[in-house]
UniProtKB/TrEMBL annotation, chains A, B:
Phylogenetic lineage: Bacteria, Pseudomonadati, Pseudomonadota, Betaproteobacteria, Burkholderiales
A Pfam family annotated for this UniProt entry: HMGL-like
Keyword vocabulary terms for this entry: Lyase, Metal-binding
PROSITE patterns given in the database record: PYR_CT (PS50991)
Protein's UniProt name: Hydroxymethylglutaryl-CoA lyase
Any Gene Ontology biological process: L-leucine catabolic process
Keyword Protease: no
PANTHER family recorded: HYDROXYMETHYLGLUTARYL-COA LYASE (PTHR42738)
Domain Pyruvate carboxyltransferase, first and last residues per copy: 5-271
SUPFAM superfamilies with a match to the protein in the record: Aldolase
Signal peptide coordinates: none
GO molecular function: hydroxymethylglutaryl-CoA lyase activity; metal ion binding
Amino acid sequence: MKQRIHFNEVVTRDGFQMEPEFVPTDSKVALINALSQCGYAKIEVTSFTSVKAIPMLRDAEEVMGRIERVPGVEYTVLVPNLRGAERAMESRPDEFNLVMSTSETHNLANLRMPREHSFAALRDVVARYAQQVPINVSLSACFGCPMEGDVPQAEVLRWAQRFADLGVRGLTICDTTGMAHPEQVARMCDVLQARFAHLQLTLHFHNTRGMGLANVLAAAQSGIDRFDGSLGGLGGCPYAPGASGNISSEDAIHMLDAMGYDTGIDLARLLPIARELPAIVGHTVPGQVAQSGMITDLHPAPPSVAELKKEFQ
Amino acid sequence: MKQRIHFNEVVTRDGFQMEPEFVPTDSKVALINALSQCGYAKIEVTSFTSVKAIPMLRDAEEVMGRIERVPGVEYTVLVPNLRGAERAMESRPDEFNLVMSTSETHNLANLRMPREHSFAALRDVVARYAQQVPINVSLSACFGCPMEGDVPQAEVLRWAQRFADLGVRGLTICDTTGMAHPEQVARMCDVLQARFAHLQLTLHFHNTRGMGLANVLAAAQSGIDRFDGSLGGLGGCPYAPGASGNISSEDAIHMLDAMGYDTGIDLARLLPIARELPAIVGHTVPGQVAQSGMITDLHPAPPSVAELKKEFQ
């Protein structure tokens, strides 16, 4: 028996975050409402970071206030610190997602502070809010840092342990710039599951070097049952220019589905939404199944086939 | 210990075949000569099909005559029938690659004859030439037909057995339109290796639905040690429009390399060649590692990191 797989859709947060053109609030709300009907376990709706840092998500309160929440779907939000947590709490999220990097350089480049400062800020959020809302921590650069290179597995486990000790509900282990390979993933997932069996463990992959779905496969084979994905494969990292970003949710779901995993997702409903994404962001997106169709979508034979069949009867 | 992996580069045949603009003979020869220095086990140079059917490869004789052959690299050519075989033989290839489909509809659409006719034509080639040159048979649509749908594994094995009985050296099992998923691949590879242990078994994947490298992973995990790949991911199938085609050689090699497989390929030499491909064909290509760099290619930290390090000292 294969484990049931739970998907967390991050397109409106991680996917939109770096887009140059503001996506109107109406479009965000409509997109999340459509995604809510597809069977996701979780949707990362937005971020309560400073409006100046990420202007794309300046409408966090309004989006959270306007979406129609579907029972069974968790609506999570990114929270950077206590101030963000206060703002976030008012919009009644189902989860806080806290983020820091396991690489010192990556944390400095992205969050503009040393890891210890990030940890202290996030520890305050956990201390203040863990009784009110489940907390997940996303650890970046767990399979390598684009500037430092290797990030030892022991270092990832060290940060994971520190948050586990604070009593968080879940950990997301992120391959932020697509540096993971399947063997590294299998090793990491085995150790994580042995050590943090009591936590929700999510894997977050990027397809920067084409290995995204191979890494999903390796993680699923190892028993992991929670994945982040971004519709259309939208979103990336500024430190890996010219490359594709997050794994495409629909491509990953399509693969797992074909392999007989129960993802709970209605692909026939999800693919038309993915096909609207280029119009929302104003450019093509890397996801492939929305273009090629599912493996069960057949093409008509060219007319020559019928003629040839007669000819060779 | 992991098996040594052998790569067959198909870009100048399978990759170029459907390109709308003729690639000059000089460019083809220069590309093959460059690829010959990278450590490939085999290069599929061209095809001796009718010039009318595939005008792109009308210079088959000239290309085969002009390339510099590197010891240790096999130069194979596609041969459709006895007439093609006669032409091909004069250019002293190291292997004939014969092709037919395991799907009747796909064979009619692509080769304009029933499978039995294709088999008879290819059987004649084997009978006439097997003593002079090693023969490989590529079976198309082994993981599904874009028009018929499922192609049962038993059907693939039946055609494989018929060619094995003729005494061919190798079989290439092709996922011609990217319909395979990793579990199907693992099952197929296990059975193939049990039944045809005496043959060279090659797997040929497409990345049409993003599963290309996941399928490579599944096949390698099952023990398969030969793969086709196309530089840049060039090439596709007319029955899966708008989708990416063959797996990118360099992306697959990069993944296997990172996992500790010995592919024999010098990626540092191969990637610059992949980066020239868009100029040769006049458009971008899907391969990702040529754009993003290898996982060992690091990026400089932004200047802010040094400032922040000082600030937080």
